[in-house]
């Protein structure tokens, strides 16, 4: 090896080390918030058996609180940005390993088509409500996907695809989280008010409640049948996340042009530009899981890693939010999420009656 080659290799090594070192303070801060958030969730699970407010919600709220009290200096910013973007992309990829596409087949064609229709109509109606209330297009998409699919996870997955800003992500998750808790507490009232059977209530919970743990919390007090049906419907609903994220990755350039951004040149726009690498990874892992290539014993550890990375990313997003900006959009976001959720419940009840679910 010549002296020039050795010097070049040494310089590259130092640059990589320097880049890695620059990430540590910000990642360390995000990890510290993550530890506190996970501890809070563990306390909830110990006291209530279910985490009504998940760790990722606690992490983003703690991040916002830290950012309100203290602005992280320049040495933290690189690691915070890395945690908010790259770690989130890895988490989305790993989520695919816990989703088996065979659940779609097992659910029956009528209910499957009904769930697809509810998600599609829910996204469209929610987006329209948000835009009527004057919310930006990207935030409207986040709120719509969060309401129609799986709350925080959908928001976290769609956000990097459409280039959403941290303040939009934080606002969407914060207000969706609040209504998620209210849903868990109030949804059982639909059993007597709407005259729902345990089976019907399970379908309603699976179609409207945001997170899987919240579905359990909302259905366990009613019956075991409601819990089983709600979990199955919720799983099929979560499987819509992949196609929806791919769809939004295809319209992301158009969204950028509409808001004055720069879209990729048409002549150089390849498939990997249209569909981000982590979405391809998500779909690949979901396919492998469906084919049995991902063993059952591996899904739980992978899901835990994905969940941990998501919480770290949410802490980073919270650290990038100016709470004063969040306060300015609070009223509109609350109305948008509430209106979207009301529409989703209405559509779900119509589906239950229309399909004659007993």
Automatic annotation (TrEMBL):
Top-level taxonomic group: Bacteria
PANTHER family: INNER MEMBRANE PROTEIN YEIH-RELATED, UPF0324 INNER MEMBRANE PROTEIN YEIH
Primary location class: membrane
InterPro entries: UPF0324_pro
TM segment ranges: 20-43, 49-66, 87-105, 111-129, 141-163, 169-191, 203-223, 235-253, 274-295, 301-321, 333-352
Alphabetical keyword list: Cell membrane, Membrane, Transmembrane, Transmembrane helix
Species the sequence originates in: Methylobacterium aerolatum
Similarity remark: Belongs to the UPF0324 family.
Origin organism lineage: Bacteria, Pseudomonadati, Pseudomonadota, Alphaproteobacteria, Hyphomicrobiales
Keyword match Signal: no
Localisation: Cell membrane
Topological type in the membrane: Multi-pass membrane protein
Alphabetical list of Pfam families matching this protein: Cons_hypoth698
UniProt entry tagged with the keyword Membrane: yes
Protein name: Integral membrane protein (TIGR00698 family)
């Amino acid at each position: 090896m010549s002296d020039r080659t050795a010097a070049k290799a040494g310089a590259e090594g130092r640059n990589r080390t320097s880049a890695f070192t620059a990430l540590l303070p910000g990642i360390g801060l995000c990890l510290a918030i993550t530890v506190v958030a996970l501890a809070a969730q563990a306390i909830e699970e110990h006291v209530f058996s279910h985490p009504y407010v998940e760790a990722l919600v606690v992490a983003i709220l703690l991040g916002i609180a830290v950012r309100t009290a203290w602005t992280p200096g320049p040495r933290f910013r690189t690691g915070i940005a890395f945690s908010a973007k790259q770690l989130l992309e890895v988490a989305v990829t790993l989520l695919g390993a816990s989703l088996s596409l065979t659940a779609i087949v097992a659910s029956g064609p009528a209910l499957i088509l009904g769930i697809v229709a509810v998600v599609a109509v829910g996204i469209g109606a929610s987006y329209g409500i948000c835009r009527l209330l004057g919310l930006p297009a990207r935030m409207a998409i986040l709120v719509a996907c969060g309401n129609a699919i799986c709350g925080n996870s959908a928001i976290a997955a769609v956000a990097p695809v459409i280039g959403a800003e941290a303040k939009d992500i934080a606002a969407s998750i914060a207000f969706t989280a609040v209504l998620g808790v209210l849903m868990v507490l109030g949804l059982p009232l639909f059993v007597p008010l709407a005259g729902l059977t345990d089976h019907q209530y399970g379908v309603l919970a699976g179609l409207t409640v945001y997170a899987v743990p919240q579905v359990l919390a909302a259905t366990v007090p009613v019956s075991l049948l409601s819990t089983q049906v709600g979990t199955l419907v919720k799983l099929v609903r979560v499987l819509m996340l992949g196609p929806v994220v791919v769809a939004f990755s295809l319209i992301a350039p158009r969204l950028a042009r509409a808001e004055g951004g720069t879209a990729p040149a048409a002549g150089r726009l390849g498939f990997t530009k249209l569909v981000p690498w982590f979405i391809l990874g998500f779909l690949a892992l979901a396919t492998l899981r469906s084919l049995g290539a991902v063993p059952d014993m591996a899904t739980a550890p992978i899901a835990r890693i994905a969940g941990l990375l998501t919480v770290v990313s949410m802490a980073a997003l919270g650290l990038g939010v100016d709470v004063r900006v969040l306060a300015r959009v609070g009223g509109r976001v609350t109305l948008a999420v509430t209106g979207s959720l009301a529409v989703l419940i209405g559509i779900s009840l119509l589906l239950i009656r229309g399909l004659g679910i007993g």
